[in-house]
Write a structure and sequence with these properties.
Blueprint (H helix, E strand, L loop, with lengths): L1 H23 L15 E4 L2 E4 L4 E7 L2 E6 L5 H10 L7 E2 L4 E4 L5 H38 L5 H35 L1
Antiparallel strand pairs: 1-2, 3-4, 4-6, 5-6
């Protein structure tokens, strides 16, 4: 039964980690280097993430600087940022690219807050799906006479307790991100 619990905890933990990564990529008015994590640049014929080609840092509250280690890739990075859905025009000074994040409008904040809620809800659905899989494994163990009826009931309660903990964590993470978006 412990393997079922560990399976559930591992899968649910990964779901929360993915959600946190997705939230980090949301532009909330502040400059966040993780906004560029999903962008790739064609570097000698290979799509390469920007953070592997350059140093990305938030130098001010609303300014990101991208300083490539190889100056020849500067134009390619600039083009990748321009063609992305970030919605920011890069400023290239020949050695560094600066991205200035404008303050978000009230409508855009509300839109982002809704997106945060949707992402949180889809993560909760994934957590519940993992719970269902874990309970099905417990039922299969009962059917194969590996555990008793009481063990099954205890196992279902334990899986539910694990699920509740991860759902609470998702709600806290979503509330924190929503607050961050609405405060700026």
């Amino acid at each position: 039964m412990k393997t079922v619990y560990e399976f559930a905890k591992t899968k649910m933990g990964k779901t929360v980690s993915v959600l946190k990564g997705d939230y980090a990529a949301i532009r909330a008015g502040r400059a966040n280097p993780q906004v560029l994590d999903k962008l790739t640049v064609d570097y000698y014929g290979t799509p390469t993430p920007i953070n592997q080609l350059a140093s990305v840092a938030a130098t001010e509250a609303r300014v990101l600087t991208v300083q490539p280690w190889d100056k020849s890739v500067l134009k390619a990075i600039e083009k990748a940022i321009q063609t992305s859905d970030i919605g920011i025009n890069p400023q290239n000074d020949g050695s560094v690219i600066r991205l200035t994040f404008p303050p978000l409008t009230e409508d855009r904040r509300k839109e982002l807050a809704k997106d945060v809620q949707k992402m949180g809800e889809s993560s909760k659905v994934a957590i519940r799906s993992i719970r269902r899989d874990a309970i099905e494994k417990l039922k299969a163990m009962k059917k194969n006479s590996e555990i008793t009826e009481d063990d099954l009931k205890d196992g279902e309660k334990e899986v539910q307790k694990i699920t509740d903990g991860f759902i609470d964590e998702i709600e806290k993470v979503a509330a924190a991100k929503e607050k961050e978006i609405m405060e700026i």
